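#lab-general

N.A. 3:47 PM
ok so I finally got the sequence cleaned up, no stray characters, all 209 residues accounted for. can someone with queue access submit it? mine expired

B.Y. 3:52 PM
send it over

N.A. 3:53 PM
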Amino acid sequence: MKHSRILISAVVCIVACILSLQLFWYLFQTFPSFGAIDTSWSQALYNLRTPLFNQIMVSISLFGADIMIVFGAVAVVLFQTVHKKRESVIFVSAVVAGVVLNYFLKFIFARTRPDMAPLIFMDSYSYPSGHAMNAFVFYGLVAYYVIVFTKREVLEVAIAVFSIIMVVLVGVSRVYLGVHYPTDVIAGYVAGLCVVITAIYCNKLYLNK
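B.Y. 4:20 PM
back already:
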C-alpha cells in the first residue's frame, strides 16, 4: 500500500511540475509586463558585475551543483549514523529525482539560454533552472530533517535561515552569470517545491507505521 502511494505521489509530483511550469510559461509569454522581468532583473544584476564579484558568483553557483552532492553524501552518513536509514533513502532519492526531473522538464519546454551577456557557457536548455531546483530540493530537505529530528529551536532557526539564503543566492548567481533568465530560476523554485512536498509526504508515510 505504501509503495503504491509513493508511486502515485511521484506521478502527481511530475504532473504538478509540468502544469505549474506550463502556467508560468503562459504568463510570461502572454503578458509583456510579466515577461519584462527577464530583461529588467537581468540587466540590474549585470550592472553589478566586477571581476571580484564574478568569481564570488561562480563559487556560489557551485552550491547548486557539485558541492551540493558532497554535502548530500555527508548528510546521508549522518542520517545513517543515527539510524535514520529510511530518511536517508528518501533524501537521496528526492535529490536524484530532482536532477532527473529537471532534465525532463528542460526537454519539454526546450527554452534556449540567454545570449545577452553570459560569463560562462552552457549548452543545455534553460527552463527551469537546474541549479535553482537542486538548491531548493537539497537545502529545503536539509532544513526539514533538521527541524524534524533535532527539536532544538536555535539550530532549527539557524538552518532554516541558512537554507533560505543559499537557495536565493544560488538562483541570483545563475542570473548574474548570464546562464538563466529570472523566470527560469523562479520556475526552478516552483519545481523544487513540488519535489520537496512529495519527499515530505513520503517521509511522513513511512513514519506513520
